[in-house]
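Milestone 3.1: sequence recovery, worked example.
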């Protein structure tokens, strides 16, 4: 299972299909998913009540992030006494994490701030984290693809990992050079199909490592006076896709089965000049009804959807058993805000891709009653994964009509 977060809501007119059921037309924002239309559901009507003020005043962006996977009301504080709830991914990790090398994987594209006031009296920890191990312990997202790769495939011993990195830098060797001998020995005992699968895997890892090295090389130096961290591509699309590639590889290799990915934190105000938008995303989301601003929001939403489509297509291209890796996934994509101008937290933009091993009936637009808790969807995902819990945040029961 994976949970993908995109910021500042969506232009809902360009997101929501007008038809319910199978025979629906993909709106502008969802058009990049046309080739995988049978592999996901559009889910309308879900809400996060605990992202609303409920007496706490301003701070909808911080609450949207903090509530997205927890369904809990964040304590309004900019100090160290943060409190929200345990997120769905970490509930799953506590039960299933021991089955894989990594209990869960948290990735993103924004370097997290964990302290300070980021939104109307809410701690930055709320704004930058969607994964929470406990009510007061966020799981910060790793934004450096190099470090994600090291976490996935490096040594579990920190000293050994440092030594391995030093050797690679000195001899310009791939991390795979240290395991190729064992891999070749393994090949001799495999049948033709398994040998091909091993070759495909080793090739994919090597190609990905080379891409990371290229990203580091061209991402070094200064940009407008700000030094870029080593290993993080300057190009935002390249960064997102590299993180998606790593997530796909993590699932393909069964290194982990649980992940969260923050494409950008809520309240993010970066411009998107590469798609012709010079204004900040957050500023545009307060469109005030301006149709031109709404069009630009929709264009940003579509950009993020194009990256998600790339990821879903990649999962579908990986054969697993009698189907594909995507068939055995549950990928929730969405935001904690619907219309950014209204800071609406009902009728959220939500998709779920993958069939959960054949359980979920994809290829539909499913619409629920207004204010149906988003956490009911999470209960259903947990239930399908064999994690039985009575409640998550403000959930009221399993979400009917998905299977």
């Amino acid at each position: 299972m994976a949970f993908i977060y995109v910021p500042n809501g969506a232009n809902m007119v360009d997101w929501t299909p007008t038809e319910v059921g199978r025979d629906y037309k993909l709106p502008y924002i969802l058009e990049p998913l046309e080739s995988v239309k049978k592999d996901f559901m559009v889910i309308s009507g879900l809400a996060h009540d605990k992202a609303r003020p409920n007496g706490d005043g301003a701070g909808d962006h911080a609450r949207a992030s903090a509530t997205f996977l927890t369904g809990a009301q964040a304590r309004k504080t900019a100090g160290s006494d943060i409190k929200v709830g345990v997120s769905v991914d970490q509930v799953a990790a506590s039960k299933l994490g021991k089955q894989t090398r990594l209990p869960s994987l948290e990735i993103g594209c924004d370097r997290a701030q964990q302290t300070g006031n980021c939104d109307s009296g809410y701690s930055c920890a709320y704004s930058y984290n969607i994964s929470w191990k406990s009510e007061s312990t966020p799981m910060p997202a790793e934004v450096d693809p190099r470090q994600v790769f090291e976490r996935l495939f490096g040594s579990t011993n920190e000293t050994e990992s440092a030594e391995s990195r030093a050797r690679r830098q000195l001899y310009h060797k791939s991390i795979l050079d240290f395991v190729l001998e064992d891999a070749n020995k393994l090949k001799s005992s495999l049948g033709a199909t398994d040998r091909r699968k091993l070759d495909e895997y080793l090739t994919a890892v090597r190609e990905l490592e080379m891409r990371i090295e290229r990203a580091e090389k061209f991402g070094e130096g200064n940009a407008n006076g700000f030094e870029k961290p080593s290993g993080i591509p300057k190009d935002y699309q390249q960064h997102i896709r590299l993180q998606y590639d790593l997530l796909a590889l993590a699932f393909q290799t069964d290194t982990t089965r649980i992940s969260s990915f923050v494409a950008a934190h809520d309240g993010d105000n970066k411009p998107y000049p590469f798609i012709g938008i010079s204004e900040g995303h957050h500023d545009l989301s307060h469109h005030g009804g301006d149709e031109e601003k709404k069009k630009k929001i929709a264009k940003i939403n579509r950009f993020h959807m194009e990256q998600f489509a790339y990821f879903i297509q990649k999962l579908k291209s990986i054969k697993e058993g009698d189907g594909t890796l995507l068939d055995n996934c549950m990928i929730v994509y969405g935001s904690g805000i619907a219309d950014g101008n209204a800071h609406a937290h009902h009728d959220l933009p939500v998709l779920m891709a993958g069939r959960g091993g054949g359980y979920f009936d994809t290829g539909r637009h499913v619409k629920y009653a207004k204010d149906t808790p988003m956490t009911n969807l999470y209960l259903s995902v947990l239930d399908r994964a064999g994690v039985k819990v009575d409640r998550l945040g403000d959930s009221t029961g399993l979400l009917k009509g998905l299977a």
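The domain at 2-143+232-384 is CATH 3.40.720 (Alkaline Phosphatase, subunit A). Residues 6 and 335 are 5 Å apart (CA to CA).
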